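Notes taken during the Thursday session

The instructor put the following on the board and asked us to keep it in front of us for the whole hour. The protein is MaoC dehydratase-like protein. We were told not to look anything up and to reason only from what is written here. First, the residues (285 in total):
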Amino acid sequence: MTDTLLQMPAARGLYVKALGTARRKPGKNIRVPQIEVRVPAVQPTPSRLAAYREICGFELAPDELPITFPQVQAAPLHMWLMLRPEFPAPLMGLVHIRNSFEMLAPMTAEMAYDVRAALADGRRTHQGYEIDLVTEYADGAGQIVYRALMTVLYRMKTDGPPLRPKPAAPAPSLSEYRSFDVPSDIGRRYAPIGGDFNPIHLYALTAKAFGFPRAIAHGMWSLARAAALVETSRGKAARTLSVQFRQPLLLPGKVALKFTNAGSGSDFALLSRTSDKVHFTGRLG
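Then, after some discussion, the predicted structure tokens were revealed:
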């Protein structure tokens, strides 16, 4: 089923509605409905794009969209899909576990693009049930210029594949090193720019309601910050990016980005400077 909207939904209102999905109780026969939504002629506002570049630290290719921005811009469509009554899981219990992004052609702020988001697939794992969401941008000629895949997890008892071994710490081959501190208010500063008002990112009090001792950083902000640092080191903007989120970044936080620039890509990992936690690992090309 395909729906077409005239414009992007307002993100803040969607998060209020998301709280109402807590009543959803998926059974053992959980399935992902085949639903997609489209919005024509989407163009970022210059002020939002400038604010996004600044808070994430993107310095290269100022006339182009950073590789993570189209996914962030389409986030209200992901929320819209998951708020549909056919979607089986409560939104506030979902865990963002991985992403991949492909910039198939340079995208500029002066161009308008048709955006498509869809619920793509689902599978049982040892942790619960994973759900994939696909995002695509097409130019005026109908050519796909951007494609992204996001996977979220609904934790539940499952007969899925056996538990995988705990991932090892990043290999010493990640020779480059950048450290930075993450302030306690980064979630509140990023939320209106990124359009993600999930209460786990805003205040310690609201995060505790969902089981976290303190607020946690937005995964898409910390990924974008890491990508921007690696881009600057490489001297060129990313065309591909993948990430596996592992452990949340509690606010405030002290982190170290380890990476290596070799061949056509850069492997990277974001680590805690105060513990042995690995927040995420990924590759940028």
